[in-house]
Design brief:
The protein is α/β, with parallel strands linked by helices. Helices cover about 30% and strands about 20% of the residues. It has 17 helices and 21 strands. The protein has helices at about 50-65, 110-120, 150-155, 160-165, 170-185, 200-205, 210, 215-220, 225-240, 250-255, 270-280, 320-325, 330-335, 380, 425-435, 480-500, 510, and strands spanning about 25, 40-45, 70-75, 85-90, 100, 125, 135, 140-145, 265, 285, 290-295, 300-305, 310-315, 315-320, 340-350, 375, 390-400, 415-420, 435-450, 460-465, 465-470. The strands form five sheets. Strands 1-10-3-2-14-21-20 form a seven-stranded mixed β-sheet, with helices on one face. The protein has a seven-stranded mixed β-sheet with strand order 8-7-16-17-18-15-19. Helix 1 packs across helix 16 and helix 9 (about 225-240) packs across helix 10. The chain is globular, with a radius of gyration of 23 Å. The chain starts with about 25 loop residues before the first strand and ends in a 16-residue tail after the last helix.
Length: about 525
């Protein structure tokens, strides 16, 4: 995890791994299912990734603060918690420190994940101090190499950047990024609105102009030189979202550049989501497929049919991409959710004794030093050149034993490398690029929604008591924004069904604005 741009900004494997704790709330499909008669009303949450786990946590905060009488059941078809955030171990040996296979970083502006890490006593590692070289590759040539300094710390103002792109493009882009962050931080204040219409929400935060046009059009319209947008910014969009700057909407493009203060949980970001559930009152059913959700005849209740049985609920929160779940909904509700394409991303992890990729692959002399972090741009292919065979290559330090492992430290450790690509990379290709390769792990993710320019979004509220967290993903998709979307959904649902929410009876930003001045470190949902 070398570079701030190399990972999802904030950011489903079938891989099985053991939970680091054993508590009764995590149940397998074979466990006794929920009894059919309950005193308390129940809410079902489908999905145990960032959105579903945080939704359970937000409900539990409301229960704790305001005594809401409700029970929570979380259904997850996989055998682990975390969704697109999970880890693997070098050589498939759990005595080694894990490597992130999915969402890898979150940043200072991600107040929910930062706060959760602090509250749950999770150890973070920062990614700003790396001093290896970074290059931008167009399929035939390195267009830019930034030496001996953190890439995001350097690209705004290094002489190489200024010489190639001038002064105006970096400074205007930096101002656009900062303006977006400033507005984003408003989502953590007491004045933050709750929304069931993402288009209205986007207008309120002045983001509509960023979601209804491409990043390249938006940046060029704001005085950013096309070369800068199609090389520097595109390097960020390709590594963060697997999409080119002339396709992805501008909000996705700008968020790709906003990675200051990037961190990750040392033992894996999935621990945040496990802790969300551990610190909720939810019962979690792993390895449990939700097959169908029906209205209960003659009432506003919902029946959820799973591979383990059925149960009736007062509220349902769908916290997974609907069209990937194979869940049957009433036809009038299913029609409300348009198909959402996702990027097929091949992630390849490997270990090698090569300190850098081999220069011959890049057409360089055998004694040339290749950057340890390589981002890519499609600009050469637009001009009729060769398309890069990868989105990014990044060295992640040396393979080491996990903290507390009984075995001795690794002698003569190998380097860990991560590759993002649109196509599967073969063993032969790996040998060409790295020479000796000892261990390889491949994963094909439906990693991110395709963020095409749009002014229309799925509904947040599908029906009374039925809400859709992932309606937010075509707007923007990160680990952090999933926790924000779930907070919003939980607040709407609790107000609708129980007359109060995460922060009590207040619902609108206008009502919240009557409160007294709040502390600078206030985080909505945690401190209200």
């Amino acid at each position: 995890m070398h570079r701030l741009l190399i990972y999802s900004l904030f950011v489903c494997s079938s891989l099985a791994f053991q939970l680091p704790f054993s508590i009764p709330l995590f149940k397998s499909r074979d466990s006794a299912h929920i009894a059919q008669v309950h005193v308390s009303p129940r809410i079902a949450i489908i999905g145990a990734g960032a959105g579903g786990s945080s939704a359970a946590f937000w409900i539990s905060k409301a229960k704790e603060k305001f005594g809401i009488d409700v029970e929570i059941d979380v259904y997850e078809r996989s055998d682990y918690i975390g969704g697109r955030s999970t880890v693997v171990y070098p050589y498939n040996d759990t005595t080694f420190a894990p490597l992130e296979l999915g969402a890898s970083i979150f940043v200072d502006a991600n107040k929910n994940l930062m706060r959760a890490s602090k509250e749950f006593n999770l150890t973070l590692t920062a990614f700003e101090d790396d001093d290896s070289n970074t290059g931008i590759w167009d399929g035939q040539n390195f267009l830019l190499v930034v030496e001996n300094g953190s890439y995001l710390k350097s690209w705004w103002a290094t002489l190489k950047v200024l010489w190639r792109y001038g002064y105006t493009a970096p400074t205007r882009t930096k101002a656009i990024v900062q303006s977006m962050i400033d507005r984003f931080l408003g989502l953590y204040t007491p004045e933050s609105p709750r929304w069931d219409d993402i288009s209205v929400f986007s207008e309120r935060f002045q983001w509509a102009s960023m979601t209804n046009q491409t990043a390249s059009d938006f940046l060029e319209g704001n005085g950013v030189a096309p070369l800068f947008a199609r090389e520097i910014v595109e390097a960020a969009t390709r590594v963060n979202y697997g999409q080119n700057v002339d396709k992805i909407h501008a909000l996705g493009g700008v968020i790709s550049m906003a990675a200051n203060g990037a961190s990750g949980v040392v033992a894996g970001n999935f621990l945040i989501f496990e802790k969300f559930l551990e610190n909720s009152t939810a019962k979690v059913f792993l390895n449990t497929n939700v097959k169908e959700i029906k209205r209960k005849s003659g009432s506003s209740l919902w029946t959820v049919y799973t591979s383990a049985g059925s149960q009736t609920y007062q509220g349902v929160i769908l916290a997974a991409p609907f069209h990937q779940t194979d869940i049957i909904l009433p036809s009038d509700l299913a029609e409300l959710i348009p198909p959402q394409p996702y990027v097929d991303l091949h992630v390849t992890l490997l270990t090698t004794r090569s300190e850098h990729p081999r220069p011959e692959y890049f057409g360089l002399a055998s004694n040339a030093q290749v950057p340890a972090t390589i981002l890519s741009t499609y600009e050469g292919a637009r001009a009729g050149g060769v398309e890069p065979e990868f989105n990014s290559i990044s060295y992640h330090g040396k393979v080491r034993k996990a903290d507390g492992a009984a075995e001795d430290a690794v002698t003569d450790p190998e380097s860990a490398v991560k590759i993002f690509s649109e196509e599967r990379v073969t063993d032969e290709w790996l040998q060409t690029v790295f020479g000796n390769v000892s261990w390889v792990y491949r994963k094909l993710w439906q990693a991110y929604p395709v963020l095409l320019p749009t002014s229309e979004f799925p509904p947040v509220k599908l029906d009374q008591g039925f809400y859709y967290v992932n309606a937010f993903e075509p707007f923007i998709s990160t680990m952090e924004t999933e926790t924000i979307a779930s907070r919003n959904v939980v607040d709407l649902l609790l107000h609708e069904e129980f007359g109060t929410g995460i922060c009590g009876a207040l619902l609108s930003g206008t009502e919240n604005a009557t409160q007294t001045a709040t502390p600078a470190d206030f985080v909505l949902g945690w401190d209200c």
